[in-house]
Amino acid sequence: MIVRRLDDVDGTDRDVKAPTFSSRRFLLRNDGMGFSFHDTVLYAGSETYIWYKHHLEAVYCIDGTGELEDLDHGVTHPISPGTFYALDGHERHYLRATTDLRMMCVFSPALTGEEVHDEDGAYPLMESKQEMEEEVTT
Ligand code: 9YT
Asked: 87-106: b or e for each residue (b if 16 or more CB lie within 10 Å)?
């Protein structure tokens, strides 16, 4: 069983800072669950373009307000506590945070923790550093 508190993750290498959000990764690929689980805060006033072409993501808002613009379907959805969305079609989207927006995210396949958004707003499909090292040594 894995038990972690936000204090265990905050300020560690599982706490990833991007220009418009911070993402605290409770579960990553090397935890072996098959998905990763993140507590993210998108900063008030920010806009983030995202296209997770290699991953599925489910998101649940627990605090704050903002909006989700689905660029593939031309629809904008308000976000507030209790809003859930799942990117089952790898939709390109904008996330706009009116206030700090706290979102719980699940990624499949799991992130390794080393990804950064590329110019398309995507995370690449990555092997974890440990797995790459194992391949070199085996
Ligand atoms: C809700 C959302 O997609 N935020 C962007 C950050 C991303 N989910 C992450 O890396 O945790």
From this structure: beeebbbbbbbbebbbbebb
Summarised one tens digit per residue, pLDDT across range 77-106 is 999 999 999 999 999 999 999 999 999 999
pTM > 0.70: yes or no:
yes
For residue 9, the SS3 value is helix
* CB 40 less than 6 A from any atom of ligand 1: yes
Convert the pLDDT of each residue in 13-29 to its tens digit.
Answer: 999 998 999 999 999 99
Q: Are 28 and 112 in contact (CB under 8 A)?
A: yes
Half-sphere exposure of residue 81, counting CA atoms within 13 Å on the CB side? 5
Separation of alpha carbons 2 and 98, rounded Å: 34
- CA of residue 136 to ligand 1 center, whole Å: 31
Cα–Cα distance, 113 to 127 (Å, whole number)? 10
CA 26, 31, 32: angle at the middle one, nearest 5?
Answer: 130
- How far is Cα 73 from Cα 12, in angstroms, rounded to an integer? 37
Tell me which residue has its CA closest to atom 8 in ligand 1.
105
